[in-house]
Write a structure and sequence with these properties.
Helices cover about 40% and strands about 15% of the residues. The chain is α/β, with parallel strands linked by helices and about 300 residues long.
Length: about 300
């Protein structure tokens, strides 16, 4: 099963400041690239717990007594750590978005490159698929996801033509969807607009931003003081949430000040924003939009 090279591998793992006897969490296991690198740096008493909601990722499990793979969404981080007896950990790594394997499997429906069913579920047991979003959401609901998750100016028009077209017959494949929205895909920007449309649908299907918020709020509780977050985002909506959370411990507004005008926040940012080198982008196209932020629990 093809899982491409992990993005910003050295920088992300270095950001964890690994202690050989520590307990670490990789919340986006995928092909196991980041996990294998963490295990190389752990001693015999160290522990790595990984999460991945995609059943396909289970085929990449690592045979190592220091390793545990949990087939669940990282939004349940605290619950499953406690279930396995861990209340505090030393570092958490996250590489968000869609894995290369998911993009490259036509039947999963994530990529605009293939003809495939409208699916886009990261958890294949999830009841909500892209086909249901496109065929069952009302016009207002579709307009909202295209506007908020796709940041598309043509959200209203896209929603209208989809609702109009599905009255004639259901829209079940990516090629059908492309045909329906063709008038909104100018030749010079077709791929960019399509990527935004697919992103919007995918974020809705997988509730990705809600899951990210729930996960981030739990990191404050499960990381011990001095523990690290090392998080890679691939689009502005994710990165904005990560950036605001690291800066303020909040997703909106500003934190409250005490009587002396001081602000108490749970994390401090470590270093500047890290992006891949031109060399990495040349060898791994998926890296081109990656942004890595590292923070330490105060």
């Amino acid at each position: 099963m093809e899982y491409h090279n992990p993005v910003l591998l050295k920088e992300t793992v270095e950001g964890l400041n690994i202690q050989p006897e520590g307990v670490y969490v990789d919340v986006t296991f995928g092909g196991g690239g980041h996990s294998k690198e963490i295990l190389k740096q752990l001693g015999i008493k160290g522990k790595l717990i990984a999460f991945d909601q995609d059943k396909d990722a289970l085929k990449n499990t690592i045979d190592d007594p220091r390793f545990l793979l949990i087939n669940e969404n990282f939004r349940y981080l605290k619950r499953f750590l406690r279930f396995y007896g861990y209340t505090k950990v030393d570092g958490i790594l996250g590489d968000f978005g869609v894995s290369s394997h998911q993009f490259d499997a036509p039947e999963r429906g994530f990529s605009t490159r293939f003809e495939g069913q409208l699916d886009m579920r990261m958890n294949q047991d999830s009841p909500l698929s892209a086909k249901q979003v496109i065929n069952e959401y009302d016009e207002k609901g579709l307009r909202k996801i295209f506007s908020e998750y796709g940041e598309l100016r043509t959200a209203a028009g896209l929603a209208h033509v989809i609702v109009e077209s599905r009255e004639q017959r259901p829209i079940t494949s990516s090629e059908q969807l492309k045909t329906v929205i063709a008038r909104f895909l100018p030749k010079h920007r077709e791929n960019k607009i399509l990527a935004q449309v697919f992103q919007a649908i995918r974020l809705e299907v997988n509730q990705e931003l809600e899951a990210l918020k729930e996960f981030l709020m739990q990191t404050e509780e499960v990381l011990r003081s001095g523990g690290r977050l090392s998080l890679i985002s691939y689009h502005s909506l994710e990165d904005r949430l990560v950036k605001r959370f690291i800066r303020n411990g909040l997703f909106e507004g500003e934190p409250e000040k005490d009587v002396f005008g001081r602000v108490e926040v749970p994390f401090r940012s470590i270093g500047k924003l890290i992006v891949p080198s031109e060399k990495e982008i040349a060898t791994n196209n998926r890296a081109r939009s990656a942004k890595l932020r590292i923070a330490e629990k105060i």
